[in-house]
Amino acid sequence: MSDTTATSHVGNQPRPYRRRVPILWWVRRRSYLLFVAREVSSVFVAWFVVFLLLLVRAVLSGEDAYRRFLDWTANPFVLALNVVALLFVLLHAVTWFNLAPQAMVVKVRGRRLPPVLIAAAHFGAWAVVSAVVAWIVLG
Amino acid sequence: MPKQRIAPILWLLFSAGGIVAALMIPVLLALFGVLFPLELVAPPDHAHLLAVIRHPLTRLVLFGTCVLALFHWAHRFKYTLYDGLQLKGLHTAINTFAYGGALLGSAVAAYLLLLLPA
Question: What is the ipTM of this complex?
């Protein structure tokens, strides 16, 4: 047990001591705020799945439904939501690829590849995937 | 399944979802969510998009993206509520909501992308 946890006894049950932390602990520092913003990005990832499934359903339903979907995306509220979602998803992508070198150690002929190279490979893959997807969508 | 055995699977789904979300979502959201509505780029016509979505490979990729992204959300959102809002006491409700939501979303994605004939 670490020194931040002590035990108090309720009946015969030992219970770990927990220091009280203010609920808004994460607004105190920029790094904490960035951490929470990264976590919150997952909500916008889930929103995108809903958005994508609505698009798929509209396209499968026919031309009119697809037209209505496009009109709906131009609604100021939906547009604003998607702009915010895009910013959070970009934050997720950039922080994810920047952390990639810490998650994977690649060795070539017994020597560790420099972390910068691994991050660069991820950003390169991102650019390629984005270009291919855009090319397929736009035809 | 005991917790010790399912935890690594959930971490793996989180991690796979993280990379898929980072690769796939920005471009699709930029196009359909921002650039088409603002008329900065002309949206594709219906026939072209239908042909793209009818392709089995597109369906498989989109289905995989949906499932992994949803489990990525479930895992991260759980810890957002645990740490950000200190709701660890509600872990049963939070787990049910997060993973139940991910399973439900996956089922809808399977219906639309795998079962529905185009």
Answer: 0.92
